[in-house]
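[agent] plan:
  1. take the single chain provided in the ticket
  2. run structure prediction with default settings
  3. attach structure tokens to the ticket
  4. add a short note for the reviewer (M.T.)
[agent] executing step 1
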Amino acid sequence: VKFISYNGDIDYSSDNLDDLSNSKEPELKKDIVFLKELVNGKKNLYFYQKQNFERYFYSDSDSSIHPLTYKKYYFNGSSSQVATNDEYINQLKTIFSDDANAKVLAAKTKYTTSDLKKIFSLYNSKFSGAASSNEPSFTETKKKAKFNLNVRPGLNFYSPLKVEQTYSNEGFPSKTGVRIGVEAEIVLPFNKNKWSVVLEPTYSLYNNKSVIKTNDNLYNMHMENYSFFSLPLSLRHYMFINDDSKIFINAGINILSFKTSSSESIDLDYDGTVFDKLQLSPSQSFKSAVFGIGFNYKNKYSVEARYNTSTNLLGEKRNSATADLKYVSLILGYN
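[agent] step 2 finished; step 3 output follows
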């Protein structure tokens, strides 16, 4: 695969049917990008893709690169009538003006990778001989799922942790802790890339050592440093604002969560002597859910607010005692 640097006009109008403009004229903007080379020869074909559009470009072997113009738009401003600006067909007839067969084929050529590669390769073969055995297939490739990997640091804002169904207490105070995650996202190849599946391994720090009194003021309740690893699996839905910006919502479940700190229990002592231990659960599966809403800019930067439902930190063997940890997260993302 070869990429070529291009500094020139790009039509940034959307191809999504929900986001078309009323004008047939391309929305050109000067930009510097890398184009993927599809065909090389006397006439060259290039490709550029963003979230909401695909564009093709051409050049002679020794000349500058130019866009092939194609645009969908609302005819007479009516969203029920979609028309196309097919100027690229006239461009192809000019590009291949010295080849009668290519000019005839140009009128039937669609604005797709397979059709454009076919006409450019047909023309070039007259100058380079028969196509070699490694000539790429001209079959239209199916849309494939896209993969994104994001680094996601942030803060967790923990609600007060009340230990219930045991010694009466007011609970450990609310806390703020850091979290760091790596998000693997698969954007599904349908419905205009509006759906994705997300898996985010995450490390979170809950607290440093804490001590509280029971309500009768007789006993001390101790909790050592506590941190945990979680693995939420979520389904995400995007709502596009424009070509660069989109809002997303997601919902999922923690398929696995396990304690990473060395603390084994919440201890109770009387006058410095530990007389009871509430054992912490080493791991849990499918015990809590996550719900989030966020904003993504240029598929590179993101921010998300997430609610994490409660998880009982205590082992199930401890009668009915519970210590439900729940928190809200503020997460930044970078792709």
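[agent] step 4 note for reviewer: The domain at 146-334 is CATH 2.40.160.20 (Porin).
[agent] ticket updated
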